[in-house]
Amino acid sequence: MKKIKLLSLFVLSLLVLSACSSDDTPDPVLEEEVITTMTVTLTPNGGGTAITLKKQDLDGDGPNAPVLTVTGGDLAAGVTYTGSIELLNETESPAEDITEEVEELSDEHQFFFTVTGGLDVTTDYTNFDGDNNPLGTEFTLTAGAASSGTITFTLRHEPKKPNDGTLADAAGETDIDATFNIAVN
Amino acid sequence: MRIVLILLLASSMLSYSQDCTSILSGKVLDLHDGKPLSEALLIVAGTNITAETNSEGKFSIQGLCNRSYSIQVGHPSCLTKIFSVKINGNSTRNFKLEHHLEEFNEITVTGKAFNDKSKTLNNSRISRAEIERLSSGTLGDALNRISGVSSLNTGNAILKPLINGLHSSRVVIVNNGVRMQDQEWGAEHAPNIDINVADNITLIKGAGALQFGGDAIGGVIIAESAKAPVKDTIFGKTILSGLSNGQGGTLTTTFTKSTKEGLSFAVQGTLKRFGDFEAPDYILSNTGLFERNASVKIALNKFNYTLEAYYSIFKNEIGILRASHLGGAQDQVNAIGSDRPLIVNPFTYDIDAPKQDVTHHLARVKATKLFDGLGKLSFQYDFQANKRLEFDIRRGDDRDRASLDLKLMTHSVTLDLDSDLSDQMGLKVGVLGRFQDNTADPNTGVRRLIPDYTRYDLGIYSILDYQATDLLVLELGGRFDYSFLDVFKFYRTSLWEARNYDELFPEIVVEEFENQILTNPKLNYNNISATAGINYTINDTYNLLFNYSLASRAPNPSELFSEGLHHSASRIEIGDLRFTPEVGHKFGATFKKQGTRFNFSINPFVNFISDFVLIEPTEVQQTIRGNFQVWEYRQTDARLLGVDFDLSYELSDHFKIAHQTSLVKGYDRTLDRPLINMPPVETKNELIFTHKKMKNLRMALQSQYVFRQNEFPNNNFEVFIPELGRSEIVDVSTPPGAYHLLNFNSSIDFNVSNTSILTVGLGVNNILDTDYRNYLNRLRYYADDLGRNFLVSLKFNY
Q: Does B7 contact A at CB distance below 8 Å?
């Protein structure tokens, strides 16, 4: 008899347990921190067409590769450009401006500009964090002699600050990494 | 020694008159080392016949009829046990008792009535004394003491047991009779067990222990708490230990009250706190931990029935090495290329992101009853709630928000029957029902790593053991498990299409969002597992065991549904919805000698696993954050081959040497190359000095040599480094070199009063402060392992 009681208890508890499931579908997660788009605008001092360098990756860590676009042609030799960088999260609509967040937390961030391949270009930081260490969402870019190569924009989160200006010394995590082919004419 | 006389008068059978002249003779032996027990008392139930063993452990009982008897065997320092014996003419039979009480000195506590969990697989045990020495460590540290067991580590506090090369979902952990459901699929999820709740730990290197599940392709780990004695007593134990490395310690205490009516009450608690640990040359920043655990047990232990209620809570906050949290492959090149971690901060007890914060509740109620002619019937209901929070380095307002927030609730009911069909034949049968509900909180602002799901399991098993002759035991078992998973999973639209799921599984789409697709996969798995083995006693000291186990494991949620960036590994991980269960065939043999001075065991095995799930790199993916290596799960045919070897020899009354070597080779038979993360060959040698008369002094010097793993797949890849203007190889494959560690530990007992003992322990780990990196540590790319560590411990038994 006891056996039957125990068995029925067992079956009963299974039934109770299986009745617990719910049919509600879960909500999608809104990714708030994601940066999908970086736009670098280079405006020539003294007027002219601005050059934009854009990297857009709408599926984040998904399989689609980012799209790189350069508009406004080549850099002009001997011209200094005022540079500004805009960061967006376009998974939300309207798109969220991440630049503000990065500038608010300027002590935790820094942009690095890396020039390779013989490109004759120099950069200078024009905005800084509270400790007067560079931030780099605003900068100037001076084009030297005619040349071509790549320029890489790297945003590091929690780098060592101050650092010697190289990525290796700064460490931290890379939030943005964008390399553009560009020429000076 | 005193003799405890316990009379058992309940006899289930009528004695009828017949020719009663048979003699039963044999020995009473210690279950652990096979040593004879003298002055053990044997009482034949339902008669007034008693007998006592002599100095060689031998007994002889005369005047028995040809029928079945229940014989109670008692010994002053053992748990009394009842054996059923069928007499047919003059018979011989050896009885084994668990001889444990001496370890407690004057405190009479009975050890857990210990049964072999598998009769034809070697049951390796970790004793209470060993566990107490490792009080400030983890379950993984304790299991590392057993040959053939290593651990897959994430830093020094997250240890995932690795049995003969297999881990995570392939290792079943049973805590106080409850199969742990603690998100064990994750390679960086340590078992949520406080080692201090365990009185003993048993390890079975194979799937033969079918009562715990049929999917233990690697093995089964069983941790059991102490069983309270049936007598009026109150006793307790407190261990306080301090460690120089990490500048912290552990306080653990246990208190038990029991009555001779069988009622008992036990509480236990542990507090563990460490700051940053240190490698020989630098601080391992953000590796502190804070662990708080408690458990309570109320039990009624009667001769023919028991009732028990148990509850435990485990809460652990563990810092993950700060320098291991990286962005893309460029960061990886820097981190791997640097001799030192790229971030080293001053010592602190603070635990910041990246970190894990895990809480595990476990509750069970269990009732057993002995039925005449049927056996022992057990009913158990258990409930587990596992809450796992993982914090990544985040920006601004999200800084204190978890990136992963999972809640796993599990309810299980089991009904088991353990019966003796005859003197020679024992049968275990059981049925299991389980319901599980996983919820991933969407408020993390990070896409769910593991989706919401509900899971139903139904299992049924039967294990038969047959004592064919006095020397030969046969074991045969089978198990069937049915699992049903009802999942709600969001896929990135781009991945859904890239993997062709839009054509393969259009029917599971529930709703399409802007860049995500909600799907509702419903998955069914039918798994069959089996075991067959023999245990042949060659003579008093030699034993030969052979076992074949068939194990089947349904793919886990991580293998099925992973999709996204894994920060601590700096890689994108992708699962596959189409996976089928993996099936392991393991053949294992054990040849062992248990002599008085010289013991050894040699344990070769081969494990063929079809549809073995592994993760490996497939490509490099570009994202706005840079390039990441993509690791995809895939199924292959694997073969693991190895041998574990143990030896110990008592040089004299005081000196003993112990040796262990284990070797495993894992091979991917589909791709014809070695498997990743296989433990390198390891050999341990220990010299132990003990002296009972010198206050139980014990000193042990241990040498551990770990060879370099020379067999590994090459998963290196190239990444463009803008600063250099060229590509660099990211070496994520090459194992670190061999290393040798020396450890020392010692203890001495002081009698504080008649009923209390103070044990003082002193030890040093990594005496030579050797710099080393462990191939099986996932953070080996970024930092050295632990440096020298002094340990002091005070244990107070009262």
A: no
DSSP string of A6-33, one letter each residue: HHHHHHHHHHHHHTT---PPPPPPP-SS
Predicted complex ipTM exceeds 0.95: no
Which tokens belong to B341? 């971690």
Helix, strand or coil for residue B139?
Answer: helix
B 430-469 residues with CB < 8 A to A: 431, 433, 435, 437, 440, 442, 444-448, 451-452, 454, 456
Q: What is the mean pLDDT of residues B607-619?
A: 91
User: Which residue, A142, A138, A83, A137, is CA-closest to A115?
Assistant: A142
What domains appear along chain B, each with residue ranges and CATH number?
A: 22-99 (2.60.40.1120), 222-797 (2.40.170.20)
Residues 6+ apart with CB under 8 A from B143: B126, B149, B151, B161, B201, B203, B221
Which has the closest alpha carbon to B244: B197, B288, B196, B278?
B278
Q: What is the pLDDT of residue A143?
A: 93
Backbone φ and ψ of B349, nearest 5°: -90, -10
Quick one: DSSP state of residue B214? S
Considering only CB atoms, which chain B residues are within 8 Å of A36? 624
Q: Domains along chain A?
A: 33-184 (2.60.40)
Tokens of B476: 């045969």
DSSP string, B608-675: EEEEEEEEEEEEEEEETTEEEEEEEEEEEEEEEEEEEEEEEEE-SSSEEEEEEEEEEEEEETTTTEEP
Tens-digit pLDDT profile for residues B660-690: 999 999 999 999 999 999 999 999 999 999 9
pLDDT per residue over B515-528, tens digit each?
899 999 999 999 99
Nearest CA in chain A to B567: A173
